[in-house]
Design brief:
With 219 residues, this protein is an alpha+beta fold. The protein has one domain: 2-Layer Sandwich (Glucose Oxidase, domain 3), CATH 3.30.560. Helices cover 25% and strands 14% of the residues. The protein is built from six helices and six strands. The strands form two sheets. A four-stranded antiparallel beta sheet has the order 1-4-3-2. Helix 4 (135-152) crosses helix 6 (180-190). The termini are far apart.
Length: 219
């Protein structure tokens, strides 16, 4: 989710200037000392949340940057943005002052899997994260995007001239903009993890069909 102020152009961000790096090394207190660019975190219950659960189902990261705020040098590569999507969707606003509101579903039903490629321990495993295998996860993610959009248009953020970047995402142009069908396409096309991947492998005897390793950690 990207919101832009009214300025049409910006200069290269300070944090990439040599003087900024030198100042950070000597005294700190520059753009390089921010907390990973995350200015605030919020936990919110969506309309699908179970009131009996002990934590909300959506987490929001309010981030003081986006794929375009550092001229496409790093973030877009970290997020796996293809050249085609960059050219069509992001390049028109490259370098604009922007920020992001990222909704994250904290209770996904979809489960992925990891399998050995062969008996050779040096072969890379086969990994299938299986994101959005359960359609319910898509619905919750759509709700998260709607809440983020409403947050971006609050009075506090409108005072900064916040504006939603409303260019249709590539591949989703065939859906009515902002419909659930469009948002579902957008979510499935551009969703990503936020370094919070989790999982566990059960230890147990050979008789346990769910055990991945035995008590001696043998596969």
């Amino acid at each position: 989710m990207w919101f832009l102020n009214d300025s049409s152009a910006s200069v290269a961000p300070d944090m990439f200037r040599p003087l900024t790096a030198a100042q950070y090394a000597l005294v700190g207190g520059t753009a390089l000392s921010t907390f990973g660019g995350i200015e605030a975190v919020a936990w919110v219950n969506s309309k699908y949340a179970d009131p009996n659960d002990d934590w909300p189902d959506i987490e929001f990261h309010l981030v003081s940057s986006s794929e375009v705020s550092e001229w496409g040098l790093f973030v877009r590569k970290d997020h796996g943005v293809s050249e085609a999507v960059w050219d069509e969707y992001f390049r028109p606003i490259n370098g604009r002052s922007s920020f992001s509101i990222m909704p994250m579903y904290a209770r996904p039903n979809s489960k992925g899997w990891i399998r050995l490629r062969s008996a050779n321990p040096y072969d890379k495993p086969i990994i299938n994260p299986n994101y959005f295998d359960d359609p319910y996860d898509v619905q919750v993610a759509i709700e998260g995007v709607k809440i983020a959009w409403q947050l971006g248009y609050t009075k506090a953020l409108r005072e900064f001239g916040a504006k939603f970047y409303d260019k249709p995402f590539p591949g989703c142009e065939g859906y009515r903009f902002w419909s659930d069908e469009y948002l579902g396409c957008w979510v499935k096309s551009y969703a990503r993890t936020m370094v919070h991947d989790v999982g566990t492998c059960k230890m147990g005897p050979d008789s346990d069909p769910e055990a991945v390793v035995d008590p001696q950690l043998r596969v």
